[in-house]
Every structure is written in C-alpha cells, then in structure tokens.
Specification:
By secondary structure, this protein is mainly alpha-helical. It is built from four helices and no strands. Helix 2 runs parallel beside helix 4.
C-alpha cells in the first residue's frame, strides 16, 4: 500500500505529464494485446477478449479527456495496464 500511495502522490504532482505518458502506455500495451488476440483467431471468445481490452483502454482515455480526479484516473490506468498485460500473457501461450 505504501508503494501505491507514493505512486499516487507522484502522479498527482505531475499529473499532466503522467496523463500523456499513461495514454501512450495504455494505447501501446492495448494494441499489442489486440494484435495477439487477433493473431490467435476470430472466434466469438476472441472477439469478446478484444472488446474487453479496447473498452478498458478507451475508458482510461475517456477519463483523462473528461478531467476526472487524479486518483480515479490513476486507478483506471492501473486497471488498463493490468488488463492488457493479462490478455497478452493469456494469448502468448
């Protein structure tokens, strides 16, 4: 929890820079996850995975554009990066 609080405090201090870096990181990791999902196939399950990844990444971008509180944006960034990483791991193997 201490690490989370330190990262959140740093995120709030330089929020504008972190928003931009977060958009780049979320979009790049999400696009890698989408590529791996689509390389695996085009079944209904694959399209559902793609829907989840795209929705979560777009959700972060929408929260940044809507200028929500930094804590909400930070939490959505963590969720977006974790979701993309999980789907990357799932689809590599």
């Amino acid at each position: 929890m201490k690490l989370y609080n330190n990262l959140l405090r740093d995120f709030k201090e330089l929020s504008l820079a972190h928003y931009a870096l977060g958009i780049i990181a979320s979009s790049c990791l999400g696009s890698v996850a989408a590529m791996l999902i689509l390389m695996k196939g085009h079944t209904l399950f694959d399209m559902f995975q793609l829907f989840i990844v795209v929705s979560v990444c777009m959700g972060y971008n929408a929260l940044v554009l809507a200028q929500f509180k930094p804590k909400i944006i930070f939490n959505s960034l963590l969720i977006s990066l974790a979701t993309s990483a999980i789907f990357i791991i799932i689809n590599i193997f």
